[in-house]
């Protein structure tokens, strides 16, 4: 029977391609890749010659039936994206859903994921978190989204690109408050990796300080809102309660 492997690839450092990922990518009949040219580079680096087929955001709907029929004929295929774990702010959801609905086995080959890497090194609470992916590109929609997250008490995690990091962080400071602890993780696993902590206000200053700070790929993590204070009674209710307690046997 066919099988679809969902294979994580490096987010910058080629050394992070796991031995099992290499083995699976080498042994499958074909690889569905977000950008076949980009993945061809990775395969060359690993000495792999498996044929590629394109599967990206704009052709996924059209490509799924063909890939699915190959799986149903018994082929083993792999799904990769340009970086990190497929389906995490990346294409693949439609294919995985279709494969599972058709009873095809889907098996993950886990590995790098930018937000997990960032969270693991951020020092922010990691027991509960909310992964938001990319915020909307346009400012009004972005602010509305942030507004909807303002009361969340778990750690918030966002993806940002170099051309929107400044605007995104500025809106976060405005909507969530400049005092919120936050961490900007850029260029993870690469030469210029930087994990900068502070408050949303101080991180805005840090971004403005040097063009280098705004280059590359970013994960932004923001501490959740403080837990709502425990319900307290108003003073009059406290006084009456105390009187009642005194009268009780
Ligand atoms: N599937 C990927 C994953 O598992 O993380 C994410 C793909 S998404 C299209 C690309 C975004 O991930 C970038 O804009 C950036 O926000 C984040 N990202 C990817 N690689 C990164 C890195 N090396 N350092 C920081 N952020 C990264």
TrEMBL record:
Broad enzyme group: transferase
Subcellular location: Cytoplasm
One of the Pfam families matching this protein, by short name: TP_methylase
Role, per record: Catalyzes the 2'-O-methylation of the ribose of cytidine 1402 (C1402) in 16S rRNA.
UniProt keyword S-adenosyl-L-methionine, yes or no: yes
Reaction catalysed by this enzyme: cytidine(1402) in 16S rRNA + S-adenosyl-L-methionine = 2'-O-methylcytidine(1402) in 16S rRNA + S-adenosyl-L-homocysteine + H(+)
ATP-grasp domain ranges (all copies): 40-249
GO cellular component, one term: cytoplasm
Gene3D superfamilies: Cobalt-precorrin-4 Transmethylase, Domain 1, Methyltransferase, Cobalt-precorrin-4 Transmethylase, Domain 2
Domain of life of the source: Bacteria
GO molecular function: ATP binding; metal ion binding; rRNA (cytosine-2'-O-)-methyltransferase activity
EC code: 2.1.1.198
Family of the protein in this entry: Belongs to the methyltransferase superfamily. RsmI family.
Descriptive protein name: Ribosomal RNA small subunit methyltransferase I
PROSITE patterns xref list: ATP_GRASP, RSMI
Keywords: ATP-binding, Cytoplasm, Methyltransferase, Nucleotide-binding, rRNA processing, S-adenosyl-L-methionine, Transferase
């Amino acid at each position: 029977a066919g099988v679809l492997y969902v294979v994580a690839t490096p987010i910058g450092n080629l050394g992070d391609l796991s031995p099992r990922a290499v083995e699976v990518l080498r042994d499958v009949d074909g690889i569905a890749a977000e950008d076949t040219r980009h993945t061809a580079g990775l395969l060359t680096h690993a000495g792999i010659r498996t044929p590629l087929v394109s599967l990206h955001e704009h052709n996924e709907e059209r490509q799924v039936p063909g890939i699915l029929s190959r799986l149903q004929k018994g082929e083993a295929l792999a799904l990769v994206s340009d970086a990190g774990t497929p389906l995490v702010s990346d294409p693949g959801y439609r294919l995985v859903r279709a494969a599972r609905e058709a009873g095809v086995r889907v098996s993950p080959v886990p590995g790098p994921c930018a937000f997990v890497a960032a969270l693991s090194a951020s020092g922010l609470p990691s027991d509960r978190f909310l992964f938001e992916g990319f915020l909307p590109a346009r400012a009004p929609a972005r602010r509305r989204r942030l507004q909807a997250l303002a009361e969340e008490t778990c750690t918030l995690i966002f993806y940002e690109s170099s051309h929107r990091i400044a605007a995104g962080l500025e809106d976060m400071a405005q909507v969530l408050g400049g005092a919120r602890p936050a961490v900007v993780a850029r260029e993870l696993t690469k030469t210029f990796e930087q994990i900068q902590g502070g408050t949303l206000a101080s991180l805005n200053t840090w971004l403005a300080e040097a063009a280098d700070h705004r280059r590359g790929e970013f994960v932004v993590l923001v501490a959740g809102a403080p837990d709502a204070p425990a319900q307290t009674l108003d003073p009059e209710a406290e006084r009456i309660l105390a009187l009642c307690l005194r009268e009780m046997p």
